């Protein structure tokens, strides 16, 4: 499986709200140039819930075309329609994605553990690609260590994304007798360093949309055991993580990328809610030595 920093890539939009595919292609090139380990396409940060199946298909196709084998592309199959997820899985396989990410349906809170495992197994079979699994917080039966141990036995599923911010989470999962080669990934920027230091193969990062180079350096330091230098860098990055995650959608990330000159401002520049403060995000970017 893929090691390192996987960017949960945002999806810039046009004034109509449709995906801005040309700007997505620009971002793919930018991450290739900055050495990002892989790109996750169509995830929640990419506002997949606002896109129809045709838009998600075109987004994936354009990202793969632009990447042209220069960087691994992971297709997020998330959504509450099993049929749409299976269709995206087939497309990901056809277009040459490196892997897929599957999630538990957010609207099916009452699903039993067996039903969820069956759902994951059917999507992994449809994709015929290395598959990462991620369960939302409302699915405690899958997030438990026992549930993850069972998940790891499903054919095709080769990794799990741990979205927990608990310090003990990595310790619990790393104690499991998981199949050889089964990968664990941090799923939240604020706790990613501790989990990678404990032995996770990498992380899926929102913050890497704007600072892939620093996060790759943090990953390298964690893997080589340079803890003193890594602790300093991790502390240095925490304010930026919190500022970028201040709003539960991708607006802070889009605003930062506009300020950095990476994406066009467009007719409707991203606006944070009134409760948020742009100056806080600007200070965090400058503290991380990102020019704005």
From TrEMBL:
SMART domains: DHDPS
Family according to the record: Belongs to the DapA family.
Entry keyword annotation includes Lyase: yes
PANTHER family: 4-HYDROXY-2-OXOGLUTARATE ALDOLASE, MITOCHONDRIAL, DIHYDRODIPICOLINATE SYNTHASE
Keyword line: Lyase
A UniProt-annotated Pfam family: DHDPS
Highest taxon in the source lineage: Bacteria
Protein name: 4-hydroxy-tetrahydrodipicolinate synthase
């Amino acid at each position: 499986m893929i090691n390192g920093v996987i960017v949960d890539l945002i999806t810039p939009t046009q004034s109509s709200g449709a995906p801005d595919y040309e700007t997505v292609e620009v971002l793919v090139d930018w991450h290739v140039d900055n050495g990002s380990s892989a790109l996750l396409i169509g995830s929640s940060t990419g506002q997949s819930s606002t896109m129809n199946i045709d838009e998600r298909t075109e987004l994936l196709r354009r990202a793969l075309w632009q990447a042209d084998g220069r960087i691994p592309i992971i297709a997020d199959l998330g959504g509450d329609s099993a049929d749409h997820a299976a269709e995206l899985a087939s497309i990901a396989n056809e277009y040459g994605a490196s892997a897929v990410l599957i999630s538990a349906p957010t609207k099916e809170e009452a699903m039993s553990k067996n039903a969820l495992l069956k759902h994951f197994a059917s999507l992994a079979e449809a994709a015929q690609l290395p598959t990462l699994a991620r369960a939302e917080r409302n699915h405690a039966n899958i997030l438990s260590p026992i549930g993850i141990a069972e998940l790891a036995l499903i054919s095709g599923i080769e990794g799990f994304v741990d979205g927990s911010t608990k310090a003990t989470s990595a310790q619990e999962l790393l104690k499991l007798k998981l199949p050889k080669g089964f990968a664990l990934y941090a799923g939240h920027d604020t706790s990613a360093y501790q989990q990678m230091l404990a032995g996770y193969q990498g992380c899926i990062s929102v913050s890497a949309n704007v600072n892939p180079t620093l996060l790759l350096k943090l990953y390298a330091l964690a893997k080589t055991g340079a803890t003193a230098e890594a602790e300093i860098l991790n502390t240095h990055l925490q304010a930026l993580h919190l500022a970028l995650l201040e709003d539960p959608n991708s607006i802070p990330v889009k605003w930062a990328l506009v300020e950095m000159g990476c994406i066009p401002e467009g007719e409707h520049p991203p606006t944070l809610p009134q409760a948020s403060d742009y100056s806080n995000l600007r200070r965090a970017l400058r503290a991380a030595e990102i020019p704005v």
